[in-house]
Amino acid sequence: MTPKEPEKESNKPSTDIIIDYYNNIAAEYDHSRFKNSYGCYIDKHERTVLDKLNINPKQALDLPCGTGRLLNYADYGCDASEKMLEIANGHWPGKNLICGDARELPYEDNSFDTVITMHLLMHLDNDTIYKIMKEVHRVLRPNGRWIVDAPSYKRRKLTNCKSENWHGGSSMSIADVKQLILNRFEVKSVHGIMMFPVHRIPQAMRKPSCNLDYRLSQLAPLKEYSSYLIYELWKF
Ligand SMILES: C[S@@+](CC[C@H](N)C(=O)[O-])C[C@H]1O[C@@H](n2cnc3c(N)ncnc32)[C@H](O)[C@@H]1O
To answer: Quick check: pTM over 0.85?
Structure first.
């Protein structure tokens, strides 16, 4: 997991800062993140992966559910931002949505078959990621799955990409993920998302390029050089 060196206390991303940020941008989140060509691309390919994983929404928690983008895959949602949750409730009035912190989940042990965690770990320091991993493990039933994404450490190293703040502050290699989940989960499958910046290709060429990009992102060992990876982890 990067950063490998211990962070100074003052540099630690505070959960409060992250939640304030999402409370402030909640009203424009759907539009600003997922209505542009990049957002449409990643949304489509994340769904291709999630569809393949056969999730039963009745037994699934979306953590954090944000504004509810992926709540078609889960009947339960949890997010620490009240404003993001308000929007999710507007989109999905029938779902069970709770405001809560992923480090201390408001659910009993063994509550879900699947927990989906998209676009959260990228913001967090190693200690917070570890706490969340333990909480997800606690609320999952035996043989349950944690479907979680993380930016690719190898891709960032290759492209010399350095994040200046907490927003995309962390990245992991597959080896880092295995170390994180040691003795709690097993890696069942890994799916790459976005090898090339295909969202910048002219519209006429985009569809075939996107399909090719998606296929390349699924090939081992190339997949670890995708922008980020979705992991299917089994609790044992
Ligand atoms: C980039 S959004 C992702 C939302 C959704 N998973 C998606 O893919 O559209 C990140 C979300 O994480 C939530 N969040 C950040 N830290 C959290 C924590 N410790 N516990 C619960 N939610 C948290 C934020 O409020 C925000 O809604």
So the answer is: yes
